[in-house]
Amino acid sequence: MTLALIATMIAAGYALACWLLPFGTCRACSGTGARPHLITRTLRPCRRCRGAGQRLRLGRAVWNYARRIHHDATTGRRDGR
């Protein structure tokens, strides 16, 4: 197999994962939604995932952004939202 074919297969696999499983486990809290405070060691909600334990995958965030831009451009919205 050529390098281009392997790269295409990996990209297609990641795109499929972003479509089927848009949320991945938060790496900061390992999916628990809580992290120990630095000084008191009490559990606090994770700042990165806001206590949910899951974060939106980067590929899915890019897809949502591109879809929003396309939608705004084709529907004639000009207010920037």
From TrEMBL:
Protein name: Uncharacterized protein
Source organism: Pilimelia terevasa
Listed InterPro entries: HSP_DnaJ_Cys-rich_dom_sf
